[in-house]
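[job 4417] fold queue: 2 targets
>>> target A
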Amino acid sequence: QQPLFPFPDALLHTNHPQQAPATALHILQHLFATLSSPSTPHHWDAQARHHLLNHLQHFIHHMEQCLPAKGMLFKRQGPRNLLLSINKYFRDIQDFLHAHNHSACAWDHVRLEARVCFQRIDVLIRQMK
């Protein structure tokens, strides 16, 4: 079956030392924005969601401290289309939610995709070590 949101896997393969953390940071920022939406389903555990958002914010802050100025991340280090690929990937997710009226079923697809994103962030973090 074709994935609903094809992840730009080229983002996981980079030789530049700052590209992996910059990509991970950008994905984390988009995940935070998506999962902090007021349209998330009411049946989701609010305390667990709040806990997750706090952790995401903590990791985002930590990674921002470790990287050069945000404007320099993708300008100096690799093709700009990597940043655009991340933006398009998350725009596709937002469009999917909108097309399905932010239904609980649509959010379940997004929740599963967020899990995949965390796995890809793990790959990127391993590249940083």
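>>> target B
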Amino acid sequence: GKDRIIFATKEDHETPSSAELVADDPDDPYEEQGLILPNGDINWNCPCLGGMASGPCGEQFKSAFSCFHYSTEEIKGSDCVDQFRAMQECMQKYPDLYPQEDENEEKSSKDLEAASEEASAAKEEKGSS
């Protein structure tokens, strides 16, 4: 298997560690690199998503966010109404996990739009350099 059990004695703990830290790999797709990975994919592990990509409505969130992010409509995301409706219906089933306060709903959609616009700006910036 992937796990290995090692027994350490009191003597083992008395000597200083000889472990060396390995530098982070900048191409590691699981490393927190922001919302958009270098290859243009959405980084579902980004802390900026607040864990929305996991949990009981994670798939609905991913579907809605992906649709919005990649939308080419004149009014960005106007082609994603069904995905956002499915996400909202799912979230309403779990009020303890997804509070349905009016203020938070408005804030969430604005945050989602801002995150997507930020990603688009970063993508355009990268493309022009």
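[job 4417] complete. Note on B: Residues 51-101 form a domain with the Helix Hairpins fold (CATH 1.10.287.2900).
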